[in-house]
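FORM 12-B: Structure-to-Sequence Request
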């Protein structure tokens, strides 16, 4: 070791170098502690992600058993609406209909389902929330839902139906009006904190038919967790189940 100002430098570093290292470490610690995703925030987000995956699994199981996707709950009672007589496509997760416990109101997730009915031609119908004989064989089963999903793939992008916008990255800006990216079979949005300060526990765009992409990173003004199910992904799951 060499001496600097009559004092020893530790482990080959000068005190100036050590001071720089300590300053950088302090800055990093301040950033982590001041960031909204602190330890509690990370745990909260992970819990929301698990909840979203549980809902997705329950929706898949419902689809397999009923040859359709569940309609949203618009009354906060845990029960799905009647999608035969209504055009509802967004609302709350219908927990009771899915056989799930209804969480506290502050943790209930937003849910959207793709609906594109074709009243003139059942074979071309893409209303995923109704059970329909799309094959014309006089019965309804999983293959009719698969046909509906395949029909949905061919539909033009239209913001009258549920869709995903960007992620402020590869998929472009989070802008429902200017950057609609793609339709999905269904999406689930789990709220965390009111990051944008508008008094609504859902942040950013989550008030209607649009959700930001699941790849969206959390930021100071948004932290909702989004789970989506693509048409082709759901077709693959149904075929393998």
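FORM 12-B RESPONSE
SEQUENCE OUT:
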């Amino acid at each position: 070791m060499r001496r600097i100002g009559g004092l020893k430098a530790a482990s080959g570093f000068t005190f100036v170098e050590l001071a720089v290292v300590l300053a950088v470490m302090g800055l990093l610690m301040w950033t982590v502690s001041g960031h909204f995703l602190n330890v509690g925030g990370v745990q909260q987000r992970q819990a929301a992600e698990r909840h979203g995956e549980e809902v997705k699994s329950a929706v898949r199981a419902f689809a397999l058993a009923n040859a359709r996707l569940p309609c949203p709950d618009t009354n906060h009672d845990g029960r799905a609406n009647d999608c035969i007589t209504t055009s509802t496509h967004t609302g709350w997760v219908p927990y009771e209909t899915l056989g799930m416990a209804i969480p506290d109101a502050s943790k209930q997730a937003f849910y959207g389902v793709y609906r594109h009915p074709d009243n003139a031609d059942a074979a071309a119908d893409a209303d995923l929330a109704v059970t329909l004989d799309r094959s014309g064989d006089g019965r309804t089963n999983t293959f009719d839902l698969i046909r509906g999903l395949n029909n949905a793939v061919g539909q033009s992008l239209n913001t009258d139906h549920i869709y995903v916008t960007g992620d402020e990255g590869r998929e472009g800006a989070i802008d429902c009006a200017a950057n609609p990216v793609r339709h999905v079979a269904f999406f689930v949005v789990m709220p965390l904190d009111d990051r944008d300060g508008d008094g609504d526990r859902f942040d950013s765009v989550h008030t209607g038919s649009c959700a930001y992409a699941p790849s969206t990173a959390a930021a100071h003004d948004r932290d909702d967790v989004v789970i989506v199910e693509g048409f082709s992904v759901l077709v693959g799951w149904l075929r393998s189940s």
